[in-house]
């Protein structure tokens, strides 16, 4: 059993927590209650908390149900996230079922900061085996770089993880941490962890994969799937008795590692057509 506390480093240390939990199908209010219960257990010196993909609904394939429960960026879910972030004093990341101004629906990732700033990015790669690619709309912009407490952070969603170009680090716009809220079934858990580790090594960053638990008609999501990797591809998570996973990320160590082995300087230049 891991120890019950971590102390932030003086060198821009970042304490991060990922919370895997079961998600009730299409039940926004009950899932918000579940998330609030989990957030109340987060250690007070935490900087970022990561929730699973579609944390208020799980994956909903039915068009009628989507139309009933999808929310705008200024809806109840985002308003609640803002209040939580301010109250607890940490940023909260994850994704929710969003309705755009154009009437289309998105699997929308969020990064909500304690001061009220919110960054959104839409899942680009929609899972073709399910109906996600038919009922949701893909994002049409690269994930932005979020500047938070001295760190550069990017946020992608689940299946986006399989496409390395989408998260490729560039020398002129280096980022340090990749956050991946997910609904990844246990049948492909080996690939989930392998891809998170690979993204960490190739980009010389930390990666955090926060996966849901429980089950739905698309698969099972067991405990122990959520992970945190360092820039060498090592899993550095510590698991608490309540199932939360933590790690202390050290920006100074990360920068020193890049200086010792500056592979990022050899990155190929390319453009992406959207």
What is the C-level CATH assignment?
A: Alpha Beta
Mean pLDDT: 94
CATH topology: Nitrilase/N-carbamoyl-D-aminoacid amidohydrolase
Number of domains: 1
What is the percent of helical residues? Answer: 10-25%
Low-confidence stretches: 1-5
Largest sheet: 7 strands, mixed
Query: What assembly state would you assign to the polypeptide chains in this entry?
Result: single chain
Kindly estimate the percentage of residues that lie in beta strands according to DSSP.
Answer: 15-25%
Radius of gyration over alpha carbons? 17 Å
Written overview of the protein:
The protein is an alpha/beta fold and 274 residues long. The protein has one domain (13-266): Carbon-nitrogen hydrolase (Nitrilase/N-carbamoyl-D-aminoacid amidohydrolase, 4-Layer Sandwich), CATH 3.60.110. The protein has six helices and 14 strands. The chain has helices spanning 28-39, 63-69, 76-88, 132-135, 189-203, 251-260, and strands spanning 13-18, 48-50, 91-99, 105-112, 118-122, 146-148, 151-155, 177-182, 206-211, 214-216, 219-221, 227-229, 238-239, 245-250. The strands form three sheets. A seven-stranded mixed sheet has the order 5-4-3-2-1-14-13. A five-stranded mixed sheet has the order 6-7-8-9-12, with helices on one face. The model is unreliable at 1-5 (pLDDT under 50).
List the keywords:
disordered N terminus; alpha/beta; five-stranded mixed sheet; globular; 274 residues; seven-stranded mixed sheet; Nitrilase/N-carbamoyl-D-aminoacid amidohydrolase
């Amino acid at each position: 059993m891991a120890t019950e506390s971590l102390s932030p480093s003086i060198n821009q240390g970042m304490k991060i927590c990922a919370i895997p939990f079961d998600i009730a199908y299409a039940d926004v209010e009950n899932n918000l209650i579940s998330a609030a219960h989990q957030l109340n257990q987060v250690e007070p010196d935490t900087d970022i908390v990561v929730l699973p993909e579609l944390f208020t609904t799980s994956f909903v394939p039915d068009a009628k149900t989507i139309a009933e429960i999808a929310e705008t960026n200024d809806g109840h879910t985002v308003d609640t996230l803002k209040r939580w972030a301010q109250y607890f004093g940490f940023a909260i990341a994850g994704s929710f079922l969003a309705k755009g101004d154009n009437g289309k629906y998105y699997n929308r990732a969020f990064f909500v900061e304690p001061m009220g700033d919110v960054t959104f990015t839409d899942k680009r790669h929609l899972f073709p085996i399910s109906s996600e690619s038919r009922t949701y709309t893909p994002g049409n912009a690269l994930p932005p770089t979020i500047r938070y407490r001295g760190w550069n952070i990017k946020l992608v969603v689940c299946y986006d993880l399989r496409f390395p170009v989408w998260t490729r680090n560039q020398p002129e716009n280096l980022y340090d941490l990749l956050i991946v809220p997910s609904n990844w079934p246990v049948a492909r858990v080996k690939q989930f962890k392998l891809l998170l580790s690979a993204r960490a090594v190739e980009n010389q960053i930390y990666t955090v994969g926060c996966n849901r638990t429980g089950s739905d008609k698309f698969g099972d999501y067991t405990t122990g799937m959520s992970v945190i990797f360092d820039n060498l591809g090592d899993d550095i998570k510590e698991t608490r008795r309540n199932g939360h996973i933590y790690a202390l990320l050290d920006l100074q160590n990360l920068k020193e590692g890049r200086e010792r082995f500056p592979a990022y300087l050899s990155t190929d230049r390319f453009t992406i057509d959207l």
